[in-house]
Amino acid sequence: MPILARVIGSIEDLRGYLREDTSCDPTVLPQSLLFAYSNDLSPQTVSDTLYALATIRNDWCVGSTWFGSVRFDFTGNIDIVFNSGFEDINSTIYDNLPDPSQGFQNSSIGSNVFDVIEFKPLLSLTLLQNFFSNTEAPVCGSVIVILLKRYPNEADISRLVSLIRYHHAVLHVITSTTPSGRSQQNTMYSMASKTNGMGAFEYDENFRVAGGTYIALLEDFHQVNYSMSLDYNYSGQDVQNLQIRIYAEE
User: Fold this and answer.
1) What is the Cα 181 distance to its own chain's centre?
2) Residue 199 forms beta bridges with which residues?
3) Between 20 and 30 A from 14 (CA), which of 90, 195, 232, 233?
4) What is the 3-state secondary structure (H, E, C) of the chain?
5) CA distance 176 to 72
């Protein structure tokens, strides 16, 4: 195929992808969940966190019928695998646990977690398969859970935030306090906070605790409208970040 025709074809695909999905109804329970984890984490951390999520799945993913999983931060291709049952995702992840020999060997290399979410053309002018461009599982109102060990180098999240909001999806991120690569430590936290998600910074061994603490009520947050107000007295010109903790009533 002539190179110009391939370029035009990719542009048309991009336009079609960005066209509004009028069938998306955010009032419906999330049909799809994506569990994404860094290859820099230990297999134990990933399996423990998955187990913690599995024990409370009836509280937060009762409406989900599609479960995707993907490993990132390694030199191979990022391939999202979808299963139609939570039990099946267990087998998929246990067969694809982190492997240090496949990881990035330099701490200056940023995480490629953006590639899990972002739609972008490759040099071959084909489209990178990612969560929001998949044709297998519905993405409207979906829930994305990311276990992050390596920080990305990208700081601009405007396009991804717009993409997640466009599909009425929710992003939750648990970030390691002992990162394997340092650059933009607030990028993914900011992305979660701008998409109605939750962000946590934890030691790796506490990921499973964070999974139970933060994610048990995600379904409740997804289904209802919630608001809060804050009185403050501040006269400086510098931008200040305000952090608000939300606790569940026992």
Assistant:
1) 18
2) 173
3) 195
4) CCHHHHHHHHHHHHHHHHCCCCCCCCCCCCCEEEEEEECCCCHHHHHHHHHHHHHCHHHHCCCCCEEEEEEECECCCCCCEEECCHHHHHHHHHCCCCCHHHECCCCCCCCCCHHHHCCCECCCCCECCCHHHCCCCCCCCCEEEEEECECCCCCCCHHHHHHHHHCCCEEEEEEECCCCECCCCCHHHHHHHCCCCCEEEECHHHHHHHHHHHHCCHHHHHHCCCCCCCCCCCCCCCCCCCCCCCCCCC
5) 15
* Burial of residue 168, with CB atoms counted within 10 A of its CB: 0-12 exposed, 13-18 middle, 19 or more buried: buried
Q: Which domains are delineated in the chain?
A: 3-223 (3.40.50.410)
| pLDDT for res 120 | 55
What backbone phi and psi angles, to 5 degrees, belong to 163?
-65, -45
160-202 pLDDT per residue, tens:
998 898 888 889 999 999 999 877 888 999 999 898 888 888 8
**pLDDT for position 59:** 60
Centroid of chain to Cα 30: 14
CA dihedral 114, 116, 121, 124 (to 10 degrees): 120
**pLDDT < 70 regions, the chain:** 1-23, 26-28, 56-63, 119-129, 210-232, 234, 239-240, 242-250
Place of tokens 């009762």: 62
Query: What pairs with residue 148 in β-bridges?
Result: 175
Q: How far apart are CA 161 and CA 173, in angstroms?
A: 14
pTM for the predicted model, two decimal places:
0.75
Q: What's the confidence (pLDDT) of residue 17?
A: 44
